[in-house]
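Many groups now describe folds with learned vocabularies. In that spirit, our science desk offers one protein's residues alongside their backbone shape tokens.
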Amino acid sequence: MVLAPLVIDSIYSYASMRDGEKLLIVALTVWRIVHGQIWISVSRYLTAKGAKRIVNKSIEFDQVDRERTWDDQVIFNSLVIYLLKLYVLGTNTLPFWRLDGMALVVLLHVGPVEFIYYWFHRALHHHFLYSRYHSHHHSSIVTEPITGTYTYNRYIP
């Protein structure tokens, strides 16, 4: 329901102005949700089968209930990208793909982003932040594809 206005506007823009970029946002959102669900299903199947377990425990219902809102992040990111496309000037002239832009993204991610992420994650293990925020991430004993991105949104200020 949250994405319904985005889908309707994307279809209208494509039908009236042949603007396929908004429709591409919808398609990528659907793909991210389907892709995530496929990996979750494969992971739970392998856990239930018992063939490739890291921890010799089965997944508990508390963990499933705690991590069931994994798609909120995908929906939020899609809305932000859609709103940026609508309201930021110059987004209509951006090319769909640039190799030099991809190289820059890789260099930024390998360099400063990983460094900052590592130290930020280390800071989250300090007892003050761990007890208030990060312990929810570590409360999942059986790791799944969505465990790494799990956040407990009620405690985010």
